[in-house]
Known about the structure:
Number of domains: 2
Bound molecules: adenosine-5'-triphosphate, 1-O-pyrophosphono-5-O-phosphono-alpha-D-ribofuranose, nicotinic acid, magnesium ion
Number of strands: 25
Protein name: Nicotinate phosphoribosyltransferase
CATH superfamily of the largest domain: nicotinate phosphoribosyltransferase
Strand order of the largest sheet: 17-16-3-7-5-23-24
Cofactor: Mg(2+); Mn(2+)
EC number: 6.3.4.21
Enzyme class: ligase
Amino acid sequence: MADNNVRQFGQNGIIQPLLTDLYQITMAYAYWKSGKTKDLAVFDLFFRKNPFQGEFTIFAGLEECLKFLGKFRYSESDIEYLRTTLPSSTEDAFFDFLGTLTAADVKLFALAEGSVAFPRVPLMRVEGPLTVVQLLETTLLTLVNYASLMATNAARYRIAAGNLMLFEFGLRRAQGPDGGLSASKYSYIGGFDGTSNVLAGKLFNIPVKGTHAHSYITSFNGFAELKNVTLQGRNGGKPQDLLKLTLAWKEKLLSIFNVISSEASEGELAALISFAIAFPDGFMALVDTYEVQRSGLLNYCAVALALNDLGYRAIGIRLDSGDLSYLSNVSRHYFTEIGRKFNIPWFENLMIMASNDINEETIISLNEQGHKINCFGIGTHLVTCQRQPALGCVYKMVELNHYPRIKLSQEVAKVTMPGSKDAYRLYSESGDALVDLLQRSVEPPPKVNEKILCRHAFEESKRAYVKPSKVEKLLQLYWADGKIVKALPSLEEIKGKVTSSMKTLRSDIKRNLNPTPYKVAVSDKLYHFIHDQWLKNAPIGELS
Ligand SMILES: Nc1ncnc2c1ncn2[C@@H]1O[C@H](COP(=O)(O)OP(=O)(O)OP(=O)(O)O)[C@@H](O)[C@H]1O
Ligand SMILES: O=P(O)(O)OC[C@H]1O[C@H](OP(=O)(O)OP(=O)(O)O)[C@H](O)[C@@H]1O
Ligand SMILES: O=C(O)c1cccnc1
Ligand SMILES: [Mg+2]
């Protein structure tokens, strides 16, 4: 068990059986009273619509679901609490029954964590005693919904940013501490390179990175505040006066920047010198506190050149306001000019990090405008998923005691697909994912190079034959006999799965504007099964 009680059983301690909606427990009592506890149920966990006006979703949260199954057991204090919460007429024996429940008889099938996923294809199929699988609903949904939304959001930023570096800076803006931790973890899985969240770094072994805040710059007024101005060279030797070296460089730079000395803030320069003394090998600093070109950049370059005199290579700058395209171009222009003039080739490659309310659209727009940014620090829009704050995963009963169950709706898209189903992804010869095919679990799997009729679930005329070059069975058994029965990938492997899985999607499915929907189909047998069940269960009205 990790220290500080942050994690118990290898998992956040708040993930426990009472982290659910009261109605699950209310139903458990009524199931128990009706003698239905031993009924065998099958539930599908799926979503109906991709988030962010996109056409793909990344499935995440599976490992947490499996850990939850491992510790699913009502404690004595849970049961004491429920005694005070359920109506006083609740029979004692029910609480004894609750105390015996575990997930030992549950089977959980799921997509690999990090896979791309599509509407209506179950992310999970959960089978087992009705009461237990019902009691799992809310917790499984809360573990999958935000994780998948976050990983999808991150994957979208990754597409927009191409190979540029992406850091998650959102903890301060996240939906509470748990939202913040989950955001750091699942944005890393979805394609970010690291986080500023130190606890996420410790718990999940994610790279932690960061610069400094404007307060560091504004905490200095002038050189008089510098308690120490000396720094030893990188390769040893006598400590030298970094202030003096910096001021000499500043004089040389004035003509390049076309400014007079007093235009550049002395407080800012003092702050930069002190920061460089603290981190001579990691000098990365904000340059937009007062004025980028006339103050921040000039001061930064003077300190970076002084560090260079002592054998250190500065890392780069962060821009946190203004026109990020323009300012990045200006910054790169000066870095290049200085690098050439003073024959310091690496200077032109100094890192330019941009932050300030950046979202997917900002990155796309910056790409169109042209910019010289290497790295984005993204907080609010990423972690709050501002463009779409929830993924609508649902958990629906599809079978009870081997008989299909269907939920009808006025909206065709909301009619559930009855019966236990399997899902297959069919691939083209070039490795592109062509279609996800749902079949009844009793059907034999589709075969490579055999023509398969793929049908739209609800529109009779929409059908196509597919001859797949590869068939992937999507739902694999992860939990049975009270334990995890499939080796779980590491966080890095899940991240790798996101990358490889995204590569199988055609680019028109992934594009930001009006993407092409990916096809999700049903087998001919499942098509007829759904429609038979629909007719059987839909009451026939009478006109009068
Ligand atoms: N070239 C650009 N194209 C599109 N959006 C940009 C560009 N540069 C910056 N932005 C975005 O525009 C917004 C600018 O924010 P805002 O109007 O608050 O200005 P600011 O620079 O933060 O102001 P301040 O100087 O007061 O901090 C941010 O969301 C930022 O990500
Ligand atoms: O903009 P976000 O995507 O949320 O990224 C994180 C922001 O957090 C920090 O400052 P903060 O916003 O707290 O203060 P500031 O806006 O005054 O810089 C940082 O400077 C970023 O601007
Ligand atoms: O390290 C940073 O630059 C950082 C961290 C959190 C929020 N904004 C910026
Ligand atoms: Mg801000």
